[in-house]
Structures are given as C-alpha cells and as structure tokens.
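Quick board copy: two proteins, each given as sequence then tokens.
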Amino acid sequence: MTLPLIEIDADLSALNTFGLPARAARLATIERVDQVRALMAEPGWAATPRLVLGGGSNLVLTRDFPGLVLRVAIPGRRRVAEDERAWYVAAGGGENWHEFVRWTLAQGSPGLENLSLIPGTVGAAPVQNIGAYGLELAERFAWLDALDLATGEVRRLDRAACRFAYRDSLFKQEAGRYLILEVCLVLPKPWRAVTRYGEVAAELAESRIAEPTPLDISDAVIRIRRRKLPDPAAIGNVGSFFKNPVVEAHCHAELAALYPALPAYPQADGRFKLAAGWLIDQCGWKGRALGPVGTHAGQALVLVNRGGARGEDVLRAAAAIQADVWARFGVALEMEPVLI
C-alpha cells in the first residue's frame, strides 16, 4: 500500500465551483483504493474528520475543514458487458460526468444523453441521484463499488442498497462513510428517446428534428443548459440551489386556486412537485443580489458568487429566499447542495 499525494493546509477555493474560500488541514488525492487503505492504517484514522470530495459542484463551504479531504481522482471507462437487453458501462469515481456521457454516445451505447453537461464527477452522481430533463440516474443504475471508510471493505451496492430518492441516496444519509470507486450503468435496448420534458421537445422542434438521435438529444440538452445556467468557470455557482418542493394534494389545490399559472407535476404517491425556480421568481428574486451573492438573471433557482463571496454570504442569501417563499406561498424550500 502506498500513501497518496498529501497537501498540508490546502486551499479549497479552486476545488469548489462556488469559489468559496476555505482550507483543509490535509488534502489527499486518491487514484487507487490501496492509497485509501494506506491512510486508514495511519494512527488516529478513526478520529480524523473526513470529507470525500468529487468535483465540488454540489458543495457549500462555510469554514475551514479541520481534518482530511479525500479528493477522488480514480480514472477509467469501460464497457462491462452487452446482451440483447442492454449495454453495461462503467467509470471510475474521478471521471468527469459529462465527458463520460459523451464517451458512451461515441461508443454506441446511448441512454444517458438527457444528463449531458451536468457538472461533477461520476462518483458524485449517485450521491445526489442526479437528474435532469426527464431522467434520473437511478433509472440507469446497475451497481457501484464503494470503500467503507470505517472497515476498509469494498462493497458492491445495487440500486436498492443505494436507497435512491429525489436528490437523495444512502451516501447523503450516511455522509462520509463511503468513497465511491466505480459506477456501472445499464443502458436499455432498444434505445428510446426521452423527450417528454417540454424544453427538450421545444428545442428539437426549433431545430426541426422530428426523429432525434441520442446525439441530437445530448446536443439539445447542452444548448438548453448553456442558455439557462451560468458556467461555473465564469461565475461561481453550484447549479440548482434548492430542491423542487413536493407538497400534499390539498396544498397544491389551494395554491393552484390562487396562482393558476403555478407549474406542478403529479407524483406517483398523489402529491405534487412544484417548480422552486418559479416560486423564487414570483418573489422577485430573479437577478437580485444580497451583497456578493445573488440569483442568476436567467434562472432564479441558481445562486451565484458575484465576487468575493464567503460561505456565510451564501447562507444569508439562501435564508432570505426561503423566508420570502414561505411568507408568500407557505412552501418550505430545502437546499440541494451539501453544507460544510
């Protein structure tokens, strides 16, 4: 076993897409599982605070981290198997998610195209159960291998074991317990286009594409996301900052009577999912700023770092938005990113 490269008093500002200032007592870059096991053999491992870090695109840092940050950089992409029902493709936890999606399309294994251009790593995707434009990761999930940071055991977890829910999973519920090594996805045959999401259908219609290919859908999603969402490389953000709230049917009925234009999506359990961005927009927050943090002019659901923001500035802006939405609609907004 070989220890990984370790940086002392590491600057994390470039390792979170919000660009928030913070430092870590130690930062280890992980490329192989044996490097983690070497760290686990060190005295004091059990008592050391740990943070598993992917692309930092779903993270709000409010302070320096006093322990060990494990930055996952495990590489690799492979075709695991193929049968008459599906393609099976896998990637290391450190692979860039969007690049992996485009690689699967180039390999002739479609099925992830609706999840194009989502920032972050492959290993972080199951943590959040990422989803966009009519598709969630859980719908394409086969298994993953994860290292239990308490025992050193590598466990293969299937969909049920991962406890996927809307923007939730075992890995958020038991934060810090697992480091995801590799993720395998199942891409069904025959391929069927997922175009039920209105913006995707409209984008394809605008391009006069009646029978889209997987690449057509990926390109359409990329165009939509680039129009609506700021590039983290240009302006700090973590994408959608609040979850779309799910409310009981009676609550939806009351709100719909007051606000006929309210976007709402019926759920299998009889509840309704509301559009958080619409609620925030109706409260006058689109493009508005509170100090160095504001909402994006093109999408009220996205908080941005206007320059020099700190973690407390983000929390202050988020709390103000939550208070306004609650006061007007009686709906509680829950933050989507992980708060440190």
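And the next:
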Amino acid sequence: MTHATSADGTSIAWERRGDTGPVLVLVDGAMGHRGFGPMPALADHLADAFRVVLYDRRGRGDSGDTAPFHRDREVEDLAAVVEAQGENVALFGISSGAMLALRGAAAIPGVRQAVVFEPPMYLDGTFEPDPPDFRERIDTLLAAGDRDGAVSLFMRVVGVPRLGVAMMRWMWWVWPKLCATAHTLPYDFAQLGDTHRGG
C-alpha cells in the first residue's frame, strides 16, 4: 500500500495488482474499499491483463477524511491516484463509483477512458426513485451516531428486503464493515446529484 496526497492535503491509500498491461483504476461504490466489497476480487481476476489500482475513497479504509466535504474533493482524490500512476489510465466504476468515474473522466487529464457499471441514473421510469426524505433521514441517523440505522435504511431503499437486512446483521464479517464506512454515504449521494431521484 502507498498513499497519494489530494489537493486539500488528504492522504489517499492505494495499491496495485498485476505487472503488465494498461493501468486500470477501480472506483468503489457505497461503503466499498480496498479491503471490502467486490473490487478486490475483481482486481485479482484482471491482474493478468492489467495493472489494477485499488484505492480507498475518502473516509474509508486507510484514507484520510479532511473537512469540509464537497463532491469535488473526491474527484481531486481520484486525480491524485491517477497522477501517481505516471501515465494515462482507464477507470472502472460501479454504482456511485460509476458516477465518480464519469466525473473524473471529464475533469482529469490523465484519464483516457471510463467504463461504468450500474450508474444510479433513474431517468426512464423503470425504477422507483428514492423517497424524497431519504438522504435527510440518513444524515439525521449519522448525526445521532446511529450507523447501524443508516446502513439499514440505505439497504432497504436500494432494494434489500427487510428479512435480508435482518440476516445481514448476523453476518459478523459483513455488517461491521458496512457500519464502519456508513458516514461516507452522504459522499456517495453527492456524486449522484439528482440522478437517483427519478427526475
């Protein structure tokens, strides 16, 4: 693991897997990081063909989290990771990370292409938009220190059945890791803007 320094001085942790091929930076969705979520396994699968970069988004894993937050800070974080590679890169982002990858591709000179999977853009009427007060309820729960409640609400809104959430609470290898990064959910919402509200 090494660190890149973002424009506001925040330390952003990253690591590389694979020794050959073009550089591919993976951008996690909500609550994922180098040690948790789908990206580490994906990196292992791609490491024969790419030099795969995993990084911890701001406030997750081994990365810092300098206040105040603005969604541009995460683009700057990604830019620092891209610059640390010393050459042009491709980005792969999933969910809210897909939105961050798109923002990064538009703003970072060293990005040559972006591939996005399931960007949360509810624009065609095929998905139910988030409840109007969803983000405010998450903020309230986090302000009260209720990370468990914030993760539960988030999971329910994104479609996990009530029974599924109850079962996840018993998964000691999953639930605490989700709660550990729950405070970054507003950062994901910032990347989405209004794309998840059905407008």
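Board note added afterward: The mean pLDDT is 94.
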